[in-house]
Amino acid sequence: MWMRLVSMAAGVLTLFYMLRPAAVPKNYTQKVETGGEIEQAYLQMGEYEVERLWIPTLQSFEAYEIFFPAELIGSDQTWPVVVMCNGTGVPASKYRPIFEHLASWGFIVIGTEDNYAWNGFSSEMCLQYLFQCNSEEDHLFYQRVDRDRIGIAGHSQGGVAVVTSATETDYSGLYKAAYIISPASEELSDLLDWKYDPSRLEIPVCLVAGTEALDADLISPLHGLLSIYEQAEDAPLRVLARKTGRDHTNTLYETDGYMTAWFCWLLQGDERAGKAFTGQDPEILRNPLYQDQRIDAAA
Q1: Is-contact 126 194, C-beta < 8 A?
Q2: Which end of the chain is more exposed for a tag (fewer CB within 10 A), N or C?
Q3: Mean pLDDT score of the chain, rounded to an integer?
Q4: Considering only the top CATH level, what class is 37-297?
């Protein structure tokens, strides 16, 4: 029995690598179909020009990838942060357009080349590195990192990393919002020894996935999403939705309009963005390109 489970896990991991997403298209913000005005608006590039840093490190994850608003340089304000967690075989260098897009909306966006992000270590190191830069007078990030406005997002294995980062690491208490894209289900993660506990989530969390076969039948099926959603009962806000006709290989960028709106609302106080998820008529609930939507907010 044990050997069969090990064989299954090895097969699934091989499938992850075979069917992992290609590099995110540079022009995806012009190509992705949207079903709501807010989703469309926040899929477009933001107002800021963007700069990039690539910082090699001796850690196993090779380097820090950082995109940030060019206006940060020489400014006297602090900027919110989003940590990105990698899916299997998808290091930060394969989805730089996502980083650039989010940075154009006024965020410092950081990730790594980690191939084993599930345990949250590289995410923790990302924050440690930024905080170190924030304290060094000769660094361009000196006193520019807002420790009170930090979000985290991840796709696939990176979805597991979001949960572990927000519940089990030294910096867990600093995260204010989580966006989880096509996360490996608990059942699948158990086979791969990626343990995580959604019941410990205590921050707003948005769960999205696709309805096509790889997500729906294997990696992130609806019952797996519902299990995460239902266990996260201590989260002050929970959102779940699946984008129709999309699969595991493209949900990372197909749902980016709502990811950007999510962080603009919860980390920047953008009330227009918040109308996608809250109020009398949240857009995501009536978006025709999504199904299985639900929202639960603590009283």
Answers
A1: no
A2: C
A3: 93
A4: alpha beta
